[in-house]
Amino acid sequence: xxxxxxxxxxxxxxxxxxxxxxxxxxxxxxxxxxxxxxxxxxxxxxxxxxxxxxxxxxxxxxxxxxxxxxxxxxxxxxxxxxxxxxxxxxxxxxxxxxxxxxxxxxxxxxxxxxxxxxxxxxxxxxxxxxxxxxxxxxxxxxxxxxxxxxxxxxxxxxxxxxxxxxxxxxxxxxxxxxxxxxxxxxxxxxxxxxxxxxxxxxxxxxxxxxxxxxxxxxxxxxxxxxxxxxxxxxxxxxxxxxxxxxxxxxxxxxxxxxxxxxxxxxxxxxxxxxxxxxxxxxxxxxxxxxxxxxxxxxxxxxxxxxxxxxxxxxxxxxxxxxxxxxxxxxxxxxxxxxxxxxxxxxxxxxxxxxxxxxxxxxxxxxxxxxxxxxxxxxxxxxxxxxxxxxxxxxxxxxxxxxxxxxxxxxxx
Amino acid sequence: xxxxxxxxxxxxxxxxxxxxxxxxxxxxxxxxxxxxxxxxxxxxxxxxxxxxxxxxxxxxxxxxxxxxxxxxxxxxxxxxxxxxxxxxxxxxxxxxxxxxxxxxxxxxxxxxxxxxxxxxxxxxxxxxxxxxxxxxxxxxxxxxxxxxxxxxxxxxxxxxxxxxxxxxxxxxxxxxxxxxxxxxxxxxxxxxxxxxxxxxxxxxxxxxxxxxxxxxxxxxxxxxxxxxxxxxxxxxxxxxxxxxxxxxxxxxxxxxxxxxxxxxxxxxxxxxxxxxxxxxxxxxxxxxxxxxxxxxxxxx
Lengths: 412, 300
Description:
The structure holds two protein chains of two kinds.
Chain A: E1 2-6, H1 7-17, E2 22-24, H2 33-43, E3 50-52, H3 57-69, E4 74-78, H4 80-85, H5 87-95, E5 101-106, H6 120-123, E6 131-134, H7 138-155, E7 159-164, E8 172-176, H8 180-186, H9 207-210, H10 225-254, E9 261-264, E10 271-275, H11 279-292, E11 297-302, E12 304-306, H12 310-317, E13 322-327, H13 337-347, E14 357-362, H14 371-383, E15 392-394, H15 403-407, E16 409-411
Helix pairs in contact in A: 1-2, 1-7, 3-5, 7-10, 11-14
Chain B: H1 26-37, E1 41-45, H2 49-53, E2 60-63, E3 66-72, H3 78-91, E4 98-104, H4 105-110, H5 113-121, E5 127-132, H6 169-174, E6 180-185, H7 189-200, E7 206-211, H8 215-218, H9 225-234, E8 241-244, E9 248-251, H10 261-264, H11 275-296
Parallel strand pairs in B: 1-3, 1-4, 4-5, 5-7, 6-7
Antiparallel strand pairs in B: 2-3, 6-8, 8-9
Helix pairs in contact in B: 1-7, 3-5
């Protein structure tokens, strides 16, 4: 069934189709519609289980941790300050191997206050151990939520589905809503034993790895902390393949899919642009126009950010002449976060000369990443001889005119 | 010799705590609690003394040969985590297992108060136990909002003892109109176990507030833990009472007007007190006792 819905509605519908047992969320702009839709679904009896009104995001993640430990399917949604407020719970959930699915509507953190979009909220949670998936369209939001449950529960890892605040959360698109029966086929109920997991009295040290689903990190003795992180890293290393597998199954059933790293018109491309989120759609158009003009350019969409699909990225990028990264985020004092990661991925393999990578920062706090800006970024990458170590600012910036201002590269 | 009469089991369910300080009141509290609670229970321990002393590192306890699970939870969110676990169990069809939060004064009165309040307001079906040793004892005796007036801790050492009154968590919890809230004291085991039993037989959010003296932090001799506990009740510092639905207060023990000095004199944390300061505490204790009596006189 095709419906015209917003990204928030798509996220809520995706969650509903997965039949979560416990949902709780604390409202925050621009995520608020998600808990509203879900609480309505529970109230109307469309969903069996409980919607819990909590008093903060910290309690929301706490409640999810508790319910996931009890073995049921759980869902929550948040944004920005709320995600930051959950921070210690995010580490806890990943270390505890709890398959929580969280939709994060991307919005930056104060100060200054801003209610629109950039990716700095979720990217600053990159080291928590959560799977992170970014979406380009409302359709992708709905589908990714369903895939997220599949991957999270099979890996015993929490998963964050990220969609751009306002650009997706409040924009309506036509979305094909899958049949419930098909989703049920794709995603059977979460498998857990009915007993409350209780460690054996003797030698429980490696019990965690034998259990299905992978269990609770607090069975570890303190000396096993390294072992726990080793195991976490091991699981994460299988995660990209698991996602590819889950996506393949999804494609078979629903006729559409989203690889962790999507290459668009990259075959003979010399310069490739890479980015995440809703600006990918805009970039596709720019690439098409530049191709018509004869430029050999391509696009790589980074859907999966954690675990970092480094092998897929190397496959997509290593043969290219130049790479441009547009970050909708910044790590102040360093540079764009995705840029750092791409540089790392391309630098670690000995390939003779290094591929130049250009790091643009754009669209912070909801500033428009327009077709004009994307075009200028790609042309800058083509023309400029050597990439800058410094951030290349893409978009209008008001400056005073000191030394830094004069030297900073600004494209607007 | 006097034969102790109690209707509660003589059997012990708790294994010997390995790493409690000498004279710690917590193992006693845990022991009494388990005697009544039975084996169908799951514990959530936020950071504090308890996770350290109860069979670390396995964090399990034995009840009639069966093992009881203790989950470690987050400091500020333990009420939410326990609530989530209970809801998850109910969704799985298990309505019997009792979910118990076992948290200190720091996790309850301070860092986690918001989530405790919210869980109480939602009337989550859990037993929330708060053991109060009147400071952050796990980290070595730092001031909490439960630290009493004029006591010293490592973060308010002399010449600046705590100048504020102790936070009244019982009034806060009662104000949530929860089905059951009670104060418990290890020097009164029968009253203690009766209240655990009462809590077990009620559904909804139940708050048990246990007074657990700490010889290490309060600086009294380890053998005096029960004595200090009893004196806290006899001097009205920690009255024994129950509240049902937030308005029906019942006082369980009318003390015999023991002067406050007998309580403060044996504790090193009060060694610096002047007679005026003792008088000030005494006066406030009496005021609050009168107020409690007034509450207990309420009739519908």
